[in-house]
Amino acid sequence: MSRIAYVSGRYCRQDEAVVSIEDRGYQFADGVYEVIAVHRGHLVDEALHLLRLARSLHELRIAAPMSDRVLRHVLRRVIRLNKVRNGSVYLQITRGVAPRNHAFPLVAFPQLVVTAQRAKPADPKFLAEGAAVISIPDLRWARRDIKSISLLPNVLGKQLAREAGAYEAWQVDADGFVTEGTSSNAWIVTSGGVIVTRKADHDILNGITRLVVIDLAAKAGLRFEERAFSLAEAKTAGEAFLTSTSSLITPVTRIDGAKVADGVPGPVTMMLRRGLAEHLDRLADGA
Ligand code: PMP
């Protein structure tokens, strides 16, 4: 069965879907995106994703192609048409189609593309062992808070990780502090049990999973600090993990080939992971 995509006003077979070669997303990466998890048919933290989407659009001065109400309908229809119960929905909005010229076109209609995919079951061995990350210099622009489709440094970084046999690359700023992964936020738990992740300013994407985990930690009464941590601090931390919509909370047990603590997923990480799983179930139960 071909997958079905929503492409600028139409639902069509994904293998037949086309966009213009003058779409500014294609020519300038002039657009934004979101990835929302689907858990038991429910769009996880959809409102938070739509808020971040509105913010990204606003920062780039791209008009929303439709109201949130209609967008929510399109997302649900794409999920249904693709029979996705557990997986994710991807949406991308570009500034529109216009003759190539860097400045904004006088007339352009933002173009929306939506696709949905089923989740691959997580490999239990991977979870039991945790993930390896490598460190790389952060080569990105100064507005990483905008979820732009311009992802070239992220693509190159993830490829370096793959080639090193690692799951993710943690990007490090000019002062030696970890910003975030190429598609995830970075966290440590100090040997004193304090959960640490970088403050959400222009230097990182404010992950929705990040926000949910901060909330879970607060509700569980865990100690939490929002501050930058250096690569050196991460390497000597008690625990490390990463968060994203698709990786949830994934323990990080090796950094640049060296074990984090004793090299196995830590107790705080696994407790938060269980808390996140319960959060997803609560949302799906409508509680
Ligand atoms: N940082 C970057 C650079 C990302 O691409 C992502 C995933 N989109 C995240 C963090 C995590 O964000 P979220 O929890 O919203 O998936």
Describe the structure.
With 287 residues, this protein is an alpha+beta fold. Helix content is 31%, strand content 27%. It has helices at 24-28, 46-60, 68-81, 124-129, 152-163, 208-219, 231-235, 267-285; strands spanning 4-7, 10-13, 31-39, 42-43, 87-94, 111-118, 131-137, 168-172, 178-181, 185-189, 195-197, 224-226, 239-244, 248-255, 258-259. The strands form two sheets. Strands 7, 8, 9, 10, 11, 12, 13, 14 and 15 form a nine-stranded mixed beta sheet that branches. β8 (168-172) and β9 form a beta hairpin. It is globular. The mean pLDDT is 97. It binds 4'-deoxy-4'-aminopyridoxal-5'-phosphate (PMP). 4'-deoxy-4'-aminopyridoxal-5'-phosphate (PMP) binds at residues 35, 154, 180, 183-185, 205, 207-210, 243-245. 4'-deoxy-4'-aminopyridoxal-5'-phosphate is lined by residues 35, 154, 180, 183-185, 205, 207-210, 243-245.
Give a brief outline of the structure.
The protein has 287 residues and is of the alpha+beta class. It contains eight helices and 15 strands. Strands 7, 8, 9, 10, 11, 12, 13, 14 and 15 form a nine-stranded mixed beta sheet that branches.
Write the H/E string, N to C: EEHEEHHEEHEHEEEEHEHEEEH
Using the alpha-carbon principal axes, give the shape: globular
DSSP, total strands: 15
Mean pLDDT: 97
Name every ligand kind in the structure: 4'-deoxy-4'-aminopyridoxal-5'-phosphate
Strand content: 25-35%
Radius of gyration: 19 Å
- Judged by helices, strands and strand pairing, the structural class is alpha+beta
